Amino acid sequence: MDFIWGGLKDGLVLLWSLDPEVYAIAWLSLRVSLTAVLLAACLAVPLGMLVALGSFPGKRAVTVVFNTLMALPTVVVGLLVYGLLSAQGPLGAWGLLYSPGAMIVAQAMLAFPLVTALVIAAVQGLDPRVRPTALTLGAGPWRVALTVLAEARFAILAALCAGFGRVLTEVGAAIMVGGNIRHYTRTLTTAIALETAKGDFAQGMALGLILLVAALGVNLAADRARGVAA
């Protein structure tokens, strides 16, 4: 127990002293994860709305698939992205492997099914009169979609917060495609794993505290969005 409390105390000292390496790692994590979620949202939000509002054969199966992919293992995504971006892969010429770009791609793939599934649930959970009312008032397809988006905006925001929390705390894909390179691709989770393995418990604890605060902030934002949506 003394070992844990000592590490916690030393970690707080690192945070209080504004250790540049600790905060550089935290900034990279936030930048990569936020970019990944925004990229995923560009496709996940419209696709989720399309599935929720559409009527087509296999709609339930599509929903089940996205719900299943919410639990997609991070190492599987890392392996897939590694294969695509490696020198022997179809996208090897891009030179993204072991770069922040590769981590963004992997995290976007992780966030995409989660955000899509939550957007589907959010739109399907709306008052069923929203769409017919908009159509009755003469709204076209795009106007109807914007109306539905406005009505579900807080639930969709909660979905994006959940996606951000998912990718911010993952470690498997980040290590596999980022390489955990110091001052370049080292994120909060990969640095925690490395520093703990090296025996630098204070550094790992400092990074862990930042990760906990970030995760808490995401969950508070998601809870706030759900409360407003309700």
For the structure shown, list the relevant keywords.
MetI-like fold, 230 residues, 11 helices, 77% helix, mainly alpha
**Ends: how far apart?**
43 Å
Count all strands and give the number: 0
The major β-sheet equals: none
- N-to-C SSE string, H for helix and E for strand: HHHHHHHHHHH
What is the alpha-carbon Rg in Å?
20 Å
Q: What would you give as the CATH superfamily?
A: MetI-like
Task: Bin the helical content.
Answer: over 70%
Taking pLDDT < 50 over at least 5 consecutive residues as the criterion, the unreliable ranges are: none
Q: List the domain count as a whole number.
A: 1
CATH architecture: Orthogonal Bundle
Shape verdict: globular
The number of helices is 11
Q: What's the rounded overall pLDDT mean?
A: 84
Which CATH C-level class is it?
Mainly Alpha
- Per the CATH scheme, the topology name is MetI-like fold
Query: What structural class do you assign from the helix and strand content?
Result: mainly alpha
Question: Approximately how much beta-strand content do the residues carry?
Answer: under 5%
